[in-house]
Amino acid sequence: MGSDRLPQRRRRCPQPVIRSPNFSPRRDGLRPELVVLHYTAMDSCEAACRALCNPAREVSAHYLISEAGEVMALVEEEMRAWHAGAGAWAGRDDVNSRSIGIELANTGYTPFAARQIAALEALLPGILSRWSIAPEGVIAHSDMAPDRKNDPGPRFDWQRLARQGLSVWPEPQDIAVDWPRFRADAARFGYPETTDDLLLTTLRLRFRPRHDGPLDTRDMGIMADLAARFPARRA
After folding, report:
1. pLDDT per position as a tens digit, 136-156
2. Which fold has domain 8-163?
3. Region at 132 (left for phi over 0; alpha for psi -120 to 50; beta for the rest)
4. Could you give the count of Cα atoms lying within 13 Å of 114 in the half-sphere of its Cβ?
5. Where are the CATH 3.40.80.10 domain residues in the chain?
6. Does residue 103 have an active-site annotation?
């Protein structure tokens, strides 16, 4: 474990600071190039904080934001919090070493509170500036681990973040259905390889929540626009 005390000029955590023991140094000299957003899927923020600070659980995040908008700093940004698990983005694994993890206290079934989202919007600009992360680097846990996760889920307002330059949103035109192109555009944007059905579900979870049915021309347009305007630098 690394030290939980850094020189004052390096401290970047808002108050209150609640230290989690669940962290390690970033591997191989890696630094944050992503921000991964999660929901806690627990009944309360207090329960989530206990879990993220419990050494037996071996999970953590850099920040936890309560429903009331309280931002709790659990792990220093320089350190590797254990929030992402197995998965990849843009052909790169060990997302924990490449990212800042933010947990939003939410069961996964309820709307996100206005004060909570306002707190996230206040927190993100500093993170993106400190680590030179572009808006397309703010992704969902479901984006990088589509076979395991669906958070922050269909109730999270990605378009609102994008309007403030804190994430991205597509400007699609309808394109003829073509699965090979859809898969190629998905890889260019950053999505990991997965089944066709799961890839489509993952795209819609973030960009067309509550839409279902087979791949259509709007799905094609969304993926093509994301790939064209926000191509990931692949490994």
Report:
1. 999 999 999 999 999 999 999
2. Lysozyme-like (3.40.80)
3. left
4. 0
5. 8-163
6. yes
